[in-house]
Design brief:
Elements lengths: L1 E9 L3 E8 L2 H15 L6 E11 L15
Antiparallel strand pairs: 1-2, 1-3
């Protein structure tokens, strides 16, 4: 199993998603499921890419930074 960090550009915003999957293809399938569950309406995905991928072991994780407008 791998822990994935994905960057997803939607029509009106950018989101970051972390998920657990066996391979890259499965990660993108799960990504679609997560987006449908999270948003009220099915979002229009412009582009999705894997930013990081690491083996899922105890203690694995990601820090996701956000930049707030000033």
């Amino acid at each position: 199993m791998y822990l994935y960090k994905l960057e997803v550009e939607l029509k009106d915003q950018k989101v970051y998603v972390t998920l657990l999957a066996e391979n890259d293809a499965q990660a993108f399938d799960y990504l679609e499921e997560q987006l449908v569950r999270h948003f009220i309406r099915n979002p229009e995905v412009v582009e999705a890419s894997i930013i990081e991928k690491k083996r899922a072991v105890k203690g694995s994780g990601y820090v996701i930074e956000t930049i707030l407008p000033q």
